[in-house]
Amino acid sequence: MKATSLALAASVLALSACAPGLQATPEAYAATDTVFEGWLRFSGEEFQLNARQDQVLQPLARPCLSGALPRDLQRQARQDLNGQRVRITGQNRAWSDDLPGRRIDQQGSNIRNECGAAFVILADRIVPIA
User: Fold this and answer.
1) What is the pTM of this model?
2) Which residues are CB-contacts of 31 (< 8 A; sequence separation ≥ 6)?
């Protein structure tokens, strides 16, 4: 009986690892936050915020949070802040795979949620942290 239970548990874990859907949200961030701190990387029209510096050095390190500033601010931030430790202020929005075009428009910047978290950041401001 124990062997059957262990085999069943292993099968469920293996299947859940392959299932599509949302990834884990970094423990450093909560869906109720309006200020986020971490290490910033850009991909396409969105940014990815990582809780640890070593994650910025890895290609699409997860868990992370996706988000964007309005288009012109996003483009400037990409030039000035890539790879830096930052403080982001803004609102968050729940993510759903049912969104039209599987994206959220943040005033001209498309957030595609490459991090796969349960929510994304609609940023108003990003400043470097010394």
Assistant:
1) 0.79
2) 25, 92, 94, 118, 119
What is the per-residue DSSP string for the chain?
A: -HHHHHHHHHHHHHHHHH--S--PPPTT--TT-SEEEEEEEEETTEEEEESSHHHHTSTT-SS-EEEE--HHHHHHHHHHHTTSEEEEEEEEEE--TTSGGG-EEETTEEE--TT--SEEEEEEEEEE--
The residue type found at 109 is: S
Angle at 48 between CA 46 and CA 53, to 5 degrees: 150
Domain 22-128 has CATH 2.120.10: no
pLDDT single digits (tens) 75-124 = 999 999 999 999 999 999 999 988 888 999 999 999 999 999 999 999 99
- What are the domain boundaries of the chain? 22-128
